[in-house]
Amino acid sequence: MNGLGNQIIVVDMRGRTGRVTSAAAIAINAAPGTKFDQIMAIHDPKMAGTVAYIEIINSDGTLAQACGNGMRCVVQALTVEQGRQSFTFETVAGILFGQERDDGLITVDMGMPKFPWYDIPLAEEFADTRKIELQIGPIDAPLLHSPSVASMGNPQATFWVHDDVWNYALDRFGPMLENHPIFPERANISIAQVVAPDKIILRTWERGAGLTEACGTAACAAVVNGARTRRTGRAATVTVPGGDLYIEWRDDDHVVLTGAAEREWTGTLDPVSGIWARNDVAA
Ligand SMILES: N[C@@H](CCC[C@H](N)C(=O)O)C(=O)O
């Protein structure tokens, strides 16, 4: 599936033990036909009142706590399967709600952002995470600097720029910033241009996956960080390379993400080895 071009593999692990292994994720991502950003593994529910436990695996085999685009894909897959439109999930970052709307777009309540430095986490204390000391490029003329940081379940850094986000070599800076010592659990790195109080243009280098067409949690972080630095209001359209995401940071502190999700093809996967076969291709 994809969520605005964020390449997602939804794996149905219900009714079986075990997990999609890190080795399987790395093997799947190594094949040109199945390069992906995240695997969303649907497991049997662990908690009453939830439909499933979702485990999120990046293409480098590491686990992620949150994935907004992937959650939309899961909601869409389950809507088709179950003929209903609202679902409650458990993830390692908490309980999430998702709903397919009548217009086909999918809304996910991504929960509450966190701002203390130890929750993001950062390696050192910052009293104010709206602007932290971090820069890249020459010391007296940095190319990117002073990001706002937040946790959307996963660590997010938003670097603000005034010009075109495509002027920045995110493929070069992304890996350095993702792995910067200030981020002990690494981080998702975004470049954001605010073009109106309700419109942000965003590019993201994803932790564990690299350059993406869309990153839902990064879009949520951009709006939350935009609002708390008074660059934006609490609701905005975030234009990512794959299209538009609609984000609202509600008064109850929950961040709600709306956008498209699309099924591409289905197949059968061995979750241990990563060996797979498409269902629609004759053997
Ligand atoms: N694609 C995602 C974010 C995926 C997780 C991220 N790479 C991480 O490790 O935190 C989204 O749509 O939110």
TrEMBL record:
Q: Active-site residues?
A: 67, 215
| Pathway entry | Amino-acid biosynthesis; L-lysine biosynthesis via DAP pathway; DL-2,6-diaminopimelate from LL-2,6-diaminopimelate: step 1/1
Q: Where in the cell is it found?
A: Cytoplasm
Q: Which family does it belong to?
A: Belongs to the diaminopimelate epimerase family.
* Function in brief: Catalyzes the stereoinversion of LL-2,6-diaminopimelate (L,L-DAP) to meso-diaminopimelate (meso-DAP), a precursor of L-lysine and an essential component of the bacterial peptidoglycan.
Query: What InterPro entries does its record include?
Result: DAP_epimerase_AS, DAP_epimerase_DapF
Which sites bind substrate?
A: 6, 38, 58, 68-69, 154, 188, 206-207, 216-217
Reaction(s) catalysed by this chain, per the record, are:
(2S,6S)-2,6-diaminopimelate = meso-2,6-diaminopimelate
Q: EC number(s) per UniProt? A: 5.1.1.7
Q: How does it assemble?
A: Homodimer.
- Where does this protein come from, organism-wise? Devosia psychrophila
- Recite the UniProt keywords alphabetically: Amino-acid biosynthesis, Cytoplasm, Isomerase, Lysine biosynthesis
* Listed NCBIfam families: DapF
Q: Which PROSITE patterns match?
A: DAP_EPIMERASE (PS01326)
The positions annotated as site (Could be important to modulate the pK values of the two catalytic cysteine residues) read 206
Give the encoding gene's name: dapF
Q: What protein name applies here? A: Diaminopimelate epimerase
